[in-house]
Amino acid sequence: MSALIDEDEIVHEAELVWLEDVGSLDYVRQSLDRLPTRRGRPAYHRDGRMIGYAVLGPGAKASRSSGTFRRRVFWLLPHDRDTDPDGLYATGTPAEAVDPRTLEPGGKGRKTERSEGGRPSAPGAGAIRTLPF
Predict the structure, then answer these.
(1) What are 19-32's pLDDT values in tens digits?
(2) What number of CA atoms fall less than 13 Å from residue 62's CA on the CB side?
């Protein structure tokens, strides 16, 4: 859950890889998954589709008990706003969702007026208005 992700858990991120153009997405869901490698496209086992993932730098250490790395994965479900604009999330977002334009390696991202279903900003309109959690 985005509100539950602490920046110290993602400090070793080197890059975010996007599998789709996120410029047209109001929000993406994010989770910390246990994965066997620091880099590369992870396997995806949820409904919906994977939108992107984090690549970890060489300083990231595997868990001593499981040998896995905690990496962020970004995804959407079939009932999310991009495919069902009048559905459950016509306004508001799931707890784990953030505006993809506020994401960067090592930064957990924020909800914005746009991600919550407000009017989209005009292209090039300037700063993104973030909302408190």
Answers:
(1) 999 999 999 999 99
(2) 10
> What would the two tokens of residue 125 be?
């309109």
Here the tokens at position 65 are 């008990």
| pLDDT value for 117 | 86
Q: Residue 58: exposed, middle, or buried by beta-carbon count in 10 A (0-12, 13-18, 19+)?
A: exposed
Evaluate whether 107 touches 42 at the Cβ level (below 8 Å).
no
DSSP annotation string for the chain: -GGG--GGGSTTEEEEEESS-GGG-S-EEEEEEEESSSSSPPP--SSSEEEEEEEE-TT----TTT--EEEEEEEE-TTSTTT-TTSTTSSS--TTEE-GGG-BTTB---EETTTTT-PPPPTT--S--EE--
Query: What does pTM read for this prediction?
Result: 0.86
